[in-house]
Write a structure and sequence with these properties.
The chain is built from nine helices and 14 strands. With 395 residues, the protein is α+β, with helices and mostly antiparallel strands.
Length: 395
């Protein structure tokens, strides 16, 4: 294999700012190859799991490790793929307060990047840079193809850095030196949301075909982890195009905020748990969108936090991703991973000062209502906000 055949070099541009930090995440952001490697690994695992199934994780871990390596005394192996980054020019830095000024919806989505009394606000990187995937000498060419598939997925559904499940850290390929897999270019060609939905559907079928030869897919419902399979991962494209990504995320964020804020019966239940004399509560359905859930009751100045009993967090199963179309407009992509919310034996616990109140896990019905239903409580589902979601059919 020639040197050129063992490498893939693409130019990426940020769609939304990258909140990437080093040892101090609140310090000056920096372009970091390990962050991209981690994101690529995640999407490769999701794709492999969708064709190999989640019943036996051993072969899946082995297949993933062949591409991006593995740590650990018993299973350690070097990565077959080197990931290198090079800035195309000086990347610009923009602060959280600059980004969200006059955009309440965007501020809601990215609230974790705000400044507090203890921490300075975060800043994001914007601009263009090069990424190179380099196949190490002696490794099989199909491993570079798997990394290519992971990059295709990352640049359509995911992001790099913090708040990626709420639209931050989105990057797209604007130039590629060659197409490694026929009918699967990295550059987005769709000019409308409908064309994007069609392009995503055909691309996902191609990804699953390339990875799935010889495999018989058996997946659990819910799946044990995030995996791309029609029964456990649903994808939509909102049909409304936008002139700027800020407009897209701000409108989505306003709708999402209206759906979740002071939502009953959750709000009444949480308020009673904080201010009452009880040691248990009913399911808090809002928790299905991710944990921890910080709470503040304005009337009493009371703070509280809802979280799992035995861990710090549970990432949101719903990913919001702005995509830049070939026309220069923007579309919103939604990815819903219907994986196990928390392990067996977990519960929710509400911490309010010295008090702790436990409750059972929620189901995911509220997510379904937000995406495709009408909201009888707050009148703020996507449909209620005038946003129609076109499902991406790839089964």
């Amino acid at each position: 294999m020639s040197t050129s055949a063992a490498n893939l070099r693409v130019k990426l541009e940020t769609v939304t700012p990258l909140f990437l930090g080093g040892a101090d995440p609140r310090d000056k952001p920096e372009l970091r190859a390990p962050s991209f490697r981690g994101a690529l690994r995640y999407w490769l695992r999701a794709a492999l799991g969708g064709v190999q199934g989640d019943a036996d994780l051993g072969p899946l871990r082995e297949a993933e490790a062949k591409v991006f390596g593995a740590a650990g005394s018993d299973s350690a192996c070097a990565s077959a793929i080197g990931v290198r980054l090079q800035a195309a020019q000086q990347l610009a830095t923009v602060s959280y307060s600059q980004l969200v000024r006059g955009r309440a919806g965007l501020a809601y989505l990215w609230f974790a990047a705000r400044g507090t009394q203890r921490e300075q606000e975060r800043s994001g990187l914007t601009g263009g840079f090069y990424l190179q995937l380099a196949l190490r000498q002696g490794q099989s060419a199909d491993l570079l193809e798997k990394a290519y598939l992971a990059l295709w997925l990352l640049t359509r559904f995911g992001g790099v850095g913090t708040r990626t499940r709420r639209g931050a850290g989105a990057v797209q390929v604007v130039q590629q030196d060659r197409v490694l897999i026929d009918d699967l270019p990295l550059v987005i060609r769709a000019r409308t949301p409908k064309e994007l939905a069609d392009e995503l559907a055909s691309g996902l079928r191609k990804v699953r075909t390339v990875l799935g030869e010889g495999y018989s897919t058996v997946v659990r419902k819910p799946s044990e982890f995030d995996l791309i399979h029609p029964e456990t991962c649903r994808i939509w494209v909102l049909e409304k195009p936008y002139g700027r990504w800020e407009e897209a995320l701000d409108e989505f964020g306003r709708c999402f905020s209206g759906f979740r804020r002071r939502r009953n019966p959750d709000y009444r239940e949480l308020r009673a748990a904080v201010h009452g004399n009880r040691d248990s509560m009913r399911p808090i359905e809002r928790a299905a969108f991710g944990l921890p859930m910080p709470l503040y009751f304005q009337s009493t100045k009371q703070q509280a936090t809802l979280r799992p009993t035995n861990r710090d967090r549970r990432m949101s199963p719903l990913i919001v991703r702005p995509v830049k179309l070939a026309s220069g407009q923007y579309a919103i992509v939604l990815v819903w991973f219907r994986s196990r919310f928390l392990p067996e034996g977990e519960a929710l616990i509400l911490h309010a000062g010295a008090r702790s109140v436990r409750g059972p896990l929620p189901d995911d019905g509220l997510i379904s209502t937000f995406i495709g239903g009408s909201d009888p409580i707050n009148g703020s589902s996507l449909r209620d906000c005038g946003l129609q979601a076109r499902e991406v059919r790839y089964g």
